[in-house]
Design brief:
This is Succinate-semialdehyde dehydrogenase (NADP(+)). Belongs to the aldehyde dehydrogenase family. This protein is α/β, with parallel strands linked by helices. It has 14 helices and 20 strands. α1 packs across α7, α2 packs antiparallel against α5 and α2 packs across α6. The chain is globular, with a radius of gyration of 23 Å. It binds adenosine-5'-diphosphate. Adenosine-5'-diphosphate binds next to α7 and α8. Adenosine-5'-diphosphate (ADP) binds next to α7 and α8.
């Protein structure tokens, strides 16, 4: 699939440190999850390389932060243009290594680029404040300055968007970055880095340290322990987020964390059922269920339960599973064997505890799993507590609004939540009661670049995108001038 790139020079397999491509002491394989075939071997960097990348980012920082906001903005805008001009190639690279269907991959490239565009614009609006003085002989001001060298550790499920959502605001604010992309999807990340160089991002301002699973742990330790790195942004599992927080405690780093979710999707008796079915399908089966905002638990009120289950199961049975390069496929492979095993464990547990299989249910040849729906789900099932991160939808029945809210909130996670109702009072009540960072009422997909994306509880810290997305990369300095 990678032989068909319009620009083969986008296929980089070395890491980027201080503007130079480095081969690393060893290499690691990148596989196509749809076929199991090897796509490339990529530089496997270690702790010493991470130190070098941090030093390069630190050396590049003074010149980058001294540029005017408009100069940085123009360079970022150029990066945006190049990402969009190469949308097809970036999409192909992503489908090859990540598996998501090609139209979805191209959609992610546009989503990723939109953060670069947005923060190129926001770069010009990192405004300070003047405050009323408490003494006429003084003047009081607030400066907003770049925090310094930032590290970004990103996951495989959005190989490019999770990079730009962190890196664009960092660069816009005047920070420099060291990125450790996911070991399963480094090729999309490296192509984005190559385009950053072509856009004129200076050497050392954007560094990309690729590493296999073991070396990622070592690189993560270096990034956390460094005095120079002032901020770590991580998207991934809650478990790894906790490790990074603990490792960052000795250097008191600022952190942005986008961790696991366990999204509820609630359908009330007064909902538009057809719309709810579409929303549930889009939310649940996007990226074959492998996103942190995918619905994990579907709660349906008793009055429409049977109707919803029947229509939803029928819709799910229309899904087309296959290689993401094939026409019409909307369900690609899962990323790795462990992901398949987790889905299988959740489905079998649900069936063993009285669940009723209404669609799918089994593994297919290779790394594919049938889109699955189990009705009559109950709170004692694994899928009620753990994030499945795959194409399995358990459907629970409830009676009252309060019961649905309580069930939805009965989790340590708090990222995305969804509900369907036509009652405007209920929209307010339920939106306010859901303990989640994001609420979708009568929608199943809600992310875009100019809204604050993030979670509460153990789903994370901070917000990405929107004008709030700049805050984590900026320090506030109070300036008091006397003797006027
Ligand atoms: P996922 O749930 O997306 O598989 P992980 O949290 O395991 O997520 O991984 C997300 C990112 O975190 C990847 O880039 C991975 O290499 C990195 N990572 C995993 N474990 C560690 C660790 N102990 N220290 C630093 N980075 C890690």
């Amino acid at each position: 699939p990678l032989s068909q790139l319009k620009d083969p020079s986008l296929l980089k397999t070395d890491a980027l440190v201080n503007g130079t491509w480095v081969t690393g002491a060893g290499r690691f394989d990148v596989l196509d999850p749809a076929t199991g075939q090897k796509l490339a071997d990529v530089a496997n960097l270690g702790a010493l390389d991470a130190e070098a990348a941090i030093a390069a980012a630190n050396a590049a920082w003074p010149a980058w932060r001294s540029k005017t906001a408009k100069e940085r903005s123009i360079i970022l805008r150029k990066w945006f243009d190049l990402l969009m001009a190469n949308q097809d190639d970036l999409g192909r690279i992503m489908t090859a290594e990540q598996g998501k269907p090609l139209p979805e991959a191209k959609g992610e490239v546009a989503y990723a680029a939109s953060f670069v565009e947005w923060f190129a614009e926001e770069a010009k609006r990192v405004n300070g404040e003047t405050l009323p003085q408490f003494d006429n002989n003084r003047r009081l001001l607030v400066l907003r300055q770049p925090i310094g060298v930032c590290a970004a550790i990103t996951p495989w499920n959005f190989p490019i968007a999770m990079i730009t959502r962190k890196v664009a605001p960092a660069l816009a604010a005047g920070c420099t970055v060291v990125i450790k992309p996911a070991e399963l999807t480094p090729l999309t990340a490296l192509a984005a880095a190559e385009l950053a160089i072509r856009a004129g991002i200076p050497a050392g301002v954007l560094n990309m340290v690729t590493a296999d699973a073991d070396n990622s742990i070592a690189v993560g330790k270096v990034l956390c322990a460094s005095d120079i790195v002032r901020h770590i942004s991580f998207t991934g599992s809650t478990e790894v987020g906790r490790i990074l927080m603990a490792q960052s405690a000795p250097t008191v780093k600022k952190m942005s964390l986008e961790l696991g979710g366990n999204a509820p999707f609630i359908v009330f008796d007064d909902a538009d059922i057809d719309s709810a079915v579409e929303g549930a399908f889009a939310s649940k089966y996007r990226n074959a269920g492998q996103t942190c905002v995918c619905s994990n638990r579907i709660y349906v009120q008793a009055g429409v339960y049977d109707a919803f289950v029947a229509k939803f199961a029928a819709k799910v049975k229309t899904a087309k599973v296959g290689n993401g390069f094939d026409d019409g496929v909307n369900q690609g492979p899962l990323i790795e064997e462990a992901a398949l095993q987790k889905v299988e464990r959740h489905v079998q547990d649900a069936l063993a505890k009285g669940g009723r299989l209404v669609a799918g249910g089994k593994r297919l040849t290779g790394q594919f799993f049938e889109p699955t729906v189990v009705a009559d789900a109950t709170a004692d099932m694994l899928c009620a507590r753990e994030e499945t991160f795959g194409p399995f939808a358990p459907v629970f029945k409830f009676n009252t609004e309060q019961e649905a809210i309580d069930a939805a909130n009965a989790t340590e996670f708090g990222l995305a939540s969804y509900f369907y109702t036509r009652d405007v009072g209920r929209i307010w009540r339920v939106s306010e009661a859901l303990e989640y960072g994001m609420v979708g009422a009568n929608v199943g997909i809600l992310a875009t670049e100019h809204v604050p994306f993030g979670g509460v509880k153990q789903s994370g810290l901070g917000r990405e995108g929107s004008h709030h997305g700049m805050d984590d990369y900026v320090e506030i300095k109070y300036l008091c001038i006397g003797d006027i």
